[in-house]
């Protein structure tokens, strides 16, 4: 009788670790709630019950990425704010790329809403400990988040563009070389993605923050 009530009430019990693991297995440029639910073997409704929405899924993905990035760097005992900020930026960019378009930068929601406060605390605490004024720390983190979000959206747009270009090239290969000369000329001049742009902008932001910190009384 208890099992019947459970079946009609709360969805199947899943937790943060299981959701993150499923998101890793279902990873792709447009990670969907349905794909994660399928990996978990539960209904989409059950996943919504624990995550809330795709924004909540993004929260968990970003937190997982952030933990992974921090494991890749050797942080000094005092927590180098540059390394922490870089880890946050890469985690945020990669998280949006994994979940895909249609998510906002803030607010985070769902099962990871409380956990993301710990993430913000870690990043801001590192900057405040380094000597940044509270307003400068907030603006610095916001600037880096904006750069990461912009880079993620550029990556997503490039993925869609590259897919369409590949399909077009395949169609042209089945045509005579003299057909569609304008289209062939445009495709030949198509710019290649600049993988270094995100790192360049992040370096500029951190260099600017270093200079700001040097002038902070």
How would you sum up this structure, described in words?
The protein has 217 residues and is an all-alpha fold. It has one domain: Tetracycline Repressor, domain 2 (Orthogonal Bundle). The chain has ten helices and no strands. The chain starts with a helix and ends with a helix. GO terms for molecular function: DNA-binding transcription factor activity; transcription cis-regulatory region binding.
Q: Class in CATH?
A: Mainly Alpha
CATH fold group: Tetracycline Repressor, domain 2
Number of strands: 0
Q: Could you estimate the helical fraction of the residues in percent?
A: over 70%
CATH superfamily: Tetracycline Repressor, domain 2
Order of helices and strands: HHHHHHHHHH
Shape: flat
- CA gyration radius, whole angstroms: 22 Å
Taking the alpha carbons of the first and last residues, their distance comes to: 68 Å
Strand residue percentage? under 5%
- Specify the structural class: mainly alpha
Tally of discrete structural domains: 1
GO molecular function, one term: transcription cis-regulatory region binding
Domain Tetracycline repressor TetR C-terminal: 76-211
Keywords: DNA-binding, Transcription, Transcription regulation
Protein name: TetR family transcriptional regulator
Give the secondary structure arrangement, pairings included.
Layout: H1 2-8, H2 16-25, H3 33-40, H4 44-51, H5 54-72, H6 81-99, H7 113-130, H8 134-173, H9 181-188, H10 197-214
